[in-house]
Write a structure and sequence with these properties.
The protein is of the alpha+beta class and about 450 residues long. Helices cover about 65% and strands about 10% of the residues. The strands form two sheets. Strands 3-4-5-7-6 form a five-stranded mixed beta sheet, covered by helices on one side. The chain has a two-stranded antiparallel sheet with strand order 1-2. The N and C termini lie far apart (about 85 Å).
Length: about 450
């Protein structure tokens, strides 16, 4: 039993700090270099390989500067295998990472020597205090590397929520404080027991699992965001189908109404009541002008959508004005055009409903060989603050609000356009611009 108790801490003292060091080194590489392969197994296999190399170099009876050079060369070779980039850039990265690793060690050694009053060279290799110093140094280095990897560089995490970022920084701090308490207990007892060794190893495993989980969470958050945008696009398509149905129904109603009115006029003319027919015709002119569908762009789907929104706006006492060029030939797919217009007009109608004064929506579309501009302008109850291409929401359901603008931005970005929004003098304006360079 005593042998087991001796062997396990001994193996931990020898192996674990170097493993933490290799994890930190690889994470620092991930910050500034782009991986060549998608499979994680290649980069996991790098850990034991590098640990063995470090031990081999450590056993050599050569100056420390030569050991550093050998580690740089090995790092460069492995980076050539696992990462993409010019050879001289990869060599500079390998050199910077290994030198930075060495400087990190020297900084902690200096701090420990200043706190304890003892130097690194005065401790024996079996001294528990030496193990505690090295362990805390390597754990801090690993966690620092993982935090930096998450906030900067090629593999940074960009899809986390605000509360997740708080936990992202909180867990490493708690881990270092907990490990520090355990290591101080090791120093107090003068040995590393199996329980303490297992606890320290457990902290390391939990930290690695935590950061892996955070990266997985980013993937799921992105998938969730993409799904919401897709649902928004699908909703826009369903609305366009409903718009076609409503427009068809409206046309049939108008056709039936005109037929009835013409029959009445025909009867008056047959009885030679010309004055009554003229007055009757004048009386129904305004009604016909109000009922007739106002938008004709030579694009059946867009016409159906716009006319349906026109009918919806009129029912809410919102005035709509149109300045639209021929849309028979447009550079966007019809589905993308419908998604932009549907979301933009939905937002405009929703904003106008809150306006107590003038309720007005203006839609302008310029379409030619090299340019397509979609401008939606509407009155608002009060000016809103705009940050970039986003705006705050007063809705309780903040997760789903903004999907309209998010859906528009998604389509505009995918189609190579630019999105501009502004709000001044209680007028909100959205412009989507698609410009094709002329030959």
């Amino acid at each position: 039993m005593n042998t087991v108790e001796y062997m396990i801490p001994g193996i931990l003292m020898a192996f674990l700090p170097k493993l933490l060091e290799t994890i930190a080194i690889r994470d620092f590489m991930d910050i500034v270099a782009i991986r060549k392969y998608q499979k994680q197994i290649y980069y996991i296999a790098w850990y034991p390989l590098f640990v063995v190399w470090i031990y081999v170099v450590l056993m050599l009876s050569v100056p420390d500067i030569l050991k550093l050079v050998l580690n740089i060369v090995f790092s460069f070779i492995t980076m050539e295998v696992l990462y993409t980039g010019k050879w001289y850039r990869l060599f500079l990265i390998a050199a910077a990472v290994m030198i930075g690793d060495r400087l990190f060690d020297l900084l902690f050694v200096s701090c420990f020597s200043w706190i304890s009053g003892e130097t690194y060279g005065s401790m024996s290799p079996q001294d528990v205090r030496l193990f505690c110093m090295i362990m805390l140094t390597k754990l801090t280095e690993m966690l620092t590397a993982k935090i930096l990897r998450g906030i900067v560089g090629h593999r940074r995490i960009s899809g986390l929520k605000r509360e997740d970022h708080f936990i992202y920084f909180l867990i490493p701090v708690i881990s270092i404080l907990t490990a520090d308490c355990l290591l101080l207990d090791c120093i107090r007892h003068g040995t590393v027991s199996i329980n303490l060794a297992g606890a320290i190893l457990g902290i390391v495993i939990l930290d690695i699992a935590f950061f892996h989980m955070i990266h997985r969470m980013e993937f799921y958050y992105k998938s969730e965001s993409d799904l919401r945008v897709l649902n928004s696009h699908m909703a826009a398509q369903m609305e366009s189908i409903a718009a076609v149905e409503q427009t068809h129904k409206k046309i049939r109603q108008i056709s039936h109404g005109i037929t009835t009115q013409l029959s009445a006029i025909e009867t008056l003319l047959r009885h030679q009541k010309y004055q009554e027919a003229e007055e009757y015709l004048r009386s129904i002119t305004d009604t016909v002008e109000q009922d007739i569908l106002p938008i004709h762009t030579n694009n059946v789907v867009v016409d159906a959508l716009l006319n349906q929104r026109y009918i919806m706006a009129r029912s809410k006492n919102i005035k709509m004005q149109f300045d639209i060029q021929d849309l028979q030939d447009i550079r966007l797919r019809t589905t993308d055009m419908v998604s932009i217009l549907s979301n933009a007009l939905n937002n405009a109608i929703e904003a106008c409903e809150k306006v107590t004064g003038n309720r007005l929506i203006e839609l302008k579309i310029i379409n030619n060989d090299h340019e397509l501009f979609i401008s939606v302008q509407n009155t608002v109850e009060e000016d809103v603050q705009i940050a970039g291409d986003t705006l705050p929401t007063s809705k309780m359901d903040k997760l789903n609000h903004g999907l309209g603008l998010g859906g528009i931005k998604s389509v505009v970005d995918r189609c190579g356009g630019k999105l501009f929004i502004e709000c001044e003098n209680r007028i909100f304006k959205l412009v989507a611009a698609f410009i094709t360079p002329s030959d």
